[in-house]
């Protein structure tokens, strides 16, 4: 971006904080490589959006996309809960892992609630605060002003603020910066491509670091919210946390490069590559889901009339690929002995797999489906 200046460091005595320039202004794009990537990203997002429209029961599969996003976004912050563990109930999680598990569950709830709230709330500081409040409820960071912008100085890296890797702007300027970010998100006076707009919003949000905790997760979650609110995606089917996690060093390096060298082009290129790759991978995943559906349906045909009862279970598994006998009873209305027989048949057909090894309280996974998201 021509004539872009990221900001400046302000001496605060024993440390320097970074005060970014505001972003609600006219922008010009002159980098042809960036324009080319933007064109590719728009094309892939369009394909993904169209694809999601024609897939039956798309909402069943979105829950697994959200689960993967929650696991990967939390992993960037050091949380070690994988998809299989995230599917379990709290009592089935080891004590030492429950806090990590709760953080992932909060992320799922925060994202689903925020998507729902978009029907009555615009992409705004209010929406971001409400999402943050859910994210931090009852977990690490619960005492760090959930749902409120910070009223003290924070920092990133280092044992103290004096040896921090990065010190965001002063807390007294947070509301002003977030107001500017919100205006930029909805500025119709100056045209700027939406994908570059959300790339810039994400960078600016992470630079402002408006919360005492949870900034990374909220910042990544905002990308999906923005794309849905602007109608670029009709359904929330694009999540970049997996790309950021696999390229974690580049992710942080490119954000830092903007602040230190005012190189916004490199950050935007990285972001657009992420959109392109993630959209392509999401389309492949949907393709594989449809193939798996056909494979499972053909296996069920071997059960004859009993396949009608298993269909209710399979539909449920495509939404939440974990099951116990009680849930199967609830879904089919069969007696427990009939349910156990049905589960045995599904195991024999390699549709589900028992994972506890216990004689009682057995839990079954639809592992082939889970693999599509790993």
Helical segment count: 15
Report the C-alpha radius of gyration, rounded: 23 Å
The count of DSSP E runs of length 2 or more, i.e. the number of strands, is 5
Instruction: Name the structural class.
Output: mainly alpha
Low-pLDDT windows of residues: none
How much helix is in the residues? Answer: 55-70%
Largest sheet: 3 strands, antiparallel
Shape call: globular
Describe the structure.
The chain is mainly α and 374 residues long. The protein folds into two domains: 31-285, Orthogonal Bundle (Fic-like fold), CATH 1.10.3290.10; 302-371, Winged helix-like DNA-binding domain superfamily/Winged helix DNA-binding domain (Arc Repressor Mutant, subunit A, Orthogonal Bundle). It is built from 15 helices and five strands. It has helices spanning 32-54, 58-76, 83-87, 98-117, 125-136, 174-185, 194-208, 215-229, 241-246, 248-261, 264-301, 307-317, 325-332, 336-348, 367-371; strands at residues 7-11, 16-20, 322-323, 353-354, 364-365. The chain has a three-stranded antiparallel beta sheet with strand order 3-5-4. Strand 1 (7-11) and strand 2 (16-20) form a beta hairpin. Helix 11 (264-301) runs antiparallel to helix 12 (307-317). The protein is globular. The two termini are 36 Å apart. The model has no long low-confidence stretch (mean pLDDT 93).
